[in-house]
Amino acid sequence: MQFDAELLLLAMAPVFLACIGWEAWHLRRTCPGEPIYSWRDTFCNAALALMQQAADKLAWLAIIPVYAFFYEHYRVYTWQASWVSFVVLFVAQDLLYYVFHRCSHRVRWLWAAHVVHHSSERLNFSTAFRQSLMYPIAGMWLFWIPLAVLGFAPKQIVAIVLINLGFQFFVHTQAIGKLGWLEYVFNTPSIHRVHHARNDRYIDRNYAGVLVIWDRLFGSYVDENPHDVPVYGIVEPLHTYNPLKATFHEWASMAADFASVRGWRNKWRALFAPPAWAADYHARRAAGSASLTADLSASTSEQSSVNANHTAAFQTTRRP
């Protein structure tokens, strides 16, 4: 089966915009006291989407030849265009997306790009557009190289990545409740609301792209609890609608931490430890701990039992 995924997503653009309009109208009527949409947040999301799309267009020019190299020299099989090859490609890429997504919450270098998507304190369809132009620098494209080795051509890889991301637009909403048996197989709005929440029980859970079976298989699934309403945003809040600050704030923080800590082990941690290491370091620095640097190594071992971007100093605010 062959088709142009970019044209498909372009054709879907009016559907995406219509969903945003419907959701804003619907939630204004049904949840008048909830600030689920704001103009500034929505315009920031739109600006981030345009920046990310422009960066991706340039990045694919450099990345596609890399996929072509692995496809030409290292592929283990050659797939003929069919529904069978499409299903294999779809499932394989969705598993690799799960790996990428989970790593993005466990490795600060990757989190520096992914944090953009989580930095809004609102969750709505426009949040799906909130993406980072720094994904190519962070190395998202590296996770799709195994698809070329499996025998899928570069254009097929690009297409399936776009289809996966296009599906995920529809799970960024508070207007749709639980969807019954579908939640045992597919990512849904309820499942993804958990992923965007910073509540203790939810933080760094539900990494699904399209299929939630990976979360259930690898122990990262948590159900949405009606008694613990999701609170959105990140542990160290952004407090800005500037798309440039949203894009680069974590990179700047990471560079500052790298420069300020002593010892190459700590410098390595400033770049590649779980984001919880940085949150703990910032909390200690703010508290003015005299033994800050000496404590870094010890605190890193403690983070193994802490979720990736959570610190004990943080307490989420529960809505009534």
From TrEMBL:
Superkingdom field: Bacteria
Domain Fatty acid hydroxylase, chain residue ranges per copy: 86-220
Organism: Paraburkholderia ultramafica
Lineage, broadest ranks: Bacteria, Pseudomonadati, Pseudomonadota, Betaproteobacteria, Burkholderiales
One GO biological process term: membrane lipid metabolic process
Molecular functions (GO terms): glyceryl-ether monooxygenase activity; iron ion binding
Composition bias type Polar residues, residue spans: 302-320
Ranges where the record places region Disordered: 298-320
UniProt keyword ATP-binding, yes or no: no
Protein name: Fatty acid hydroxylase domain-containing protein
Chain segments annotated as transmembrane: 6-25, 80-100, 133-153
Cellular component terms per the entry's GO annotation: endomembrane system; membrane
Protein topology in the membrane: Multi-pass membrane protein
Keyword vocabulary terms for this entry: Lipid metabolism, Membrane, Oxidoreductase, Transmembrane, Transmembrane helix
Location of the protein in the cell: Endomembrane system
